[in-house]
Amino acid sequence: MLKSRIKRRTVEGAHAVAELAAIHASIAALNDEDLLDLADIFAREASGALKTMAAAEMTRRGVSL
User: Fold this and answer.
1) For the chain, which residues make up each domain, given as ranges?
2) Sign (positive/negative) of CA torsion 18, 24, 26, 29?
3) What are phi and psi of 45, to 5 degrees?
4) Among the listed residues 50, 22, 21, 47, the one whose alpha carbon sits nearest the alpha carbon of residue 37
């Protein structure tokens, strides 16, 4: 039972990491205007993963709202 639980959690963790990598890649593939739109949508949040990812990509590209 323990081995199957560990295996299931390992698979779930790998899937989560793959999904997060896909989200990062999608944000990086956005053109500047769409990236600014995404950042604007999440600008009102106190904190959040998408806000952080969009801000990091904007910083990397040298664009701002």
Assistant:
1) 1-61
2) negative
3) -70, 145
4) 50
What's the pLDDT tens digit per position in 8-58? 999 999 999 999 999 999 999 999 999 999 999 998 888 888 999 999 999
Q: Return the structure tokens found at 43.
A: 């600008």
The residue length of the chain stands at 65
CA distances from 45 to 5, 19, 48, 50, 52 (A): 35, 22, 7, 10, 10
Give residue 2's pLDDT.
87
How many distinct helices (H) and strands (E) make up the chain? 3, 0
What is the C-alpha to C-alpha distance for residues 33 and 40, in angstroms, rounded to an integer? Answer: 10
Which of the four pLDDT bands, split at 50, 70 and 90, describes residue 64? confident
